[in-house]
Each structure stands twice: as structure tokens, then as C-alpha cells.
Specification:
- This protein is mainly alpha-helical and about 180 residues long.
- Helices cover about 80% and strands about 0% of the residues.
- The chain has a domain of about 80 residues: Winged helix-like DNA-binding domain superfamily/Winged helix DNA-binding domain (Arc Repressor Mutant, subunit A, Orthogonal Bundle).
- Helix 1 packs antiparallel against helix 2 and helix 5 packs across helix 6.
- The termini are far apart.
Length: about 180
């Protein structure tokens, strides 16, 4: 029994074997590539989803902090008004005057520094006057707190207007409100 292979059959068999081997090699390379590509896309999607969630949580936290700061600021402002009424009622003979100024600094943190930038030669008494004027107090109320006459308050206001360089048509109270609003 002699085994003979026809050259045409051998050629076809060789072509099929080489084609199968080529398909196997191509499949061996492309299938993992496609799977890795899909895995990378899934990871990108998960990352984007997590980053979106993170941004949402960050926004919620910042909103909560903002709301808390607003509540604290409103509480400080109401406490400031209450202590101011107490000081006016006691005609400035109260140790709460010092706490009023520290509370004022908490509510309007950059008020004095901005005033000192605008008016480098401002005195501490003029700073106190500006703080009280910022709270929309009348000359009588300011005079009771500072233990001076209402005429002295008006003179101090006039000197302060000159030092700032305000014109006759400009209002000192509006100037002080604008300073505190630009810092809030």
C-alpha cells in the first residue's frame, strides 16, 4: 500500500492550512485588541460618571457651605443690630461697645482695610465713626455712643468728607455703603 499525494491536493491543503493559520493569528491579535478597546470605553464611561457624581456632590457641598455662610452672616447682622440697639439704649456706657466693633469686623471683614487704602491717614476714631455711620445711625445716636455732642459728630463727618475728597453733591453714607458692599 503505497500512499501518494496528488500535487494539486497538496497545494490546496497547503493553501487551506496557511489561510487557517493566518486567520488564527489575525484572530489572536484582533480579538484581544477589540476586547481591550471595549474595556477602555467602559472604564472611561465609569470615570466620566464618577466625575459627574463628584462634581454634583461638590456643588451640593458648596451650596450648603454658601447657605451656611449666609445664615451665619444674617445671624451676625441681626446680633450686630441687637447689640447696637443695646448700646444706643445704654448711651454708650456699656462694655458691649468693644464687642460691637469686633462683630462689625466679622460682618464686614474688609471694611476697615479698604477704608485705610482709600484714606491712608484715617484715625481710629474716624474708623469708629465710619462703622457707626455704615449702620445708618443718626448723629444723635452716634453722639450717644461716642460720648460727644451731635455737633461734634457733624464736624467729624465734614472733616471725613474732606479727607476722602467727596464733593458737596456726594453722600458720605452712600460712599460707606459702597465700600462695605464691594467687600461682601
Amino acid at each position: 500500500m503505497e500512499f501518494r499525494v496528488d500535487p494539486d491536493t497538496w497545494f490546496v491543503f497547503s493553501i487551506l492550512f496557511i489561510s487557517g493559520l493566518g486567520l488564527f493569528i489575525v484572530g489572536f491579535i484582533t480579538i484581544p485588541y477589540i476586547l481591550r478597546k471595549k474595556q477602555i470605553e467602559r472604564l472611561k464611561f465609569k470615570f466620566e460618571r464618577k466625575s459627574d457624581r463628584y462634581e454634583i456632590v461638590e456643588q451640593k457641598i458648596s451650596r450648603r457651605k454658601g447657605n451656611q455662610l449666609e445664615k451665619n452672616n444674617l445671624k451676625l447682622k441681626s446680633d450686630l443690630k441687637v447689640s447696637l440697639k443695646e448700646i444706643v439704649k445704654n448711651k454708650g456706657h456699656n462694655p458691649e461697645v468693644l464687642t460691637f466693633y469686633s462683630d462689625f469686623e466679622k460682618v464686614y471683614p474688609n471694611f476697615t482695610s479698604t477704608l485705610q487704602k482709600v484714606i491712608p491717614s484715617i484715625t481710629s476714631n474716624e474708623l469708629k465713626l465710619c462703622a457707626l455711620l455704615r449702620m445708618n445711625l443718626s448723629a444723635k445716636e452716634v453722639s450717644d455712643i461716642l460720648n460727644i455732642t451731635p455737633e461734634s459728630v457733624n464736624k467729624a463727618r465734614y472733616r471725613l468728607r474732606k479727607k476722602i475728597g467727596l464733593q458737596a453733591k456726594d453722600d458720605l453714607d452712600i460712599f460707606l455703603l459702597n465700600i462695605s458692599n464691594s467687600n461682601s
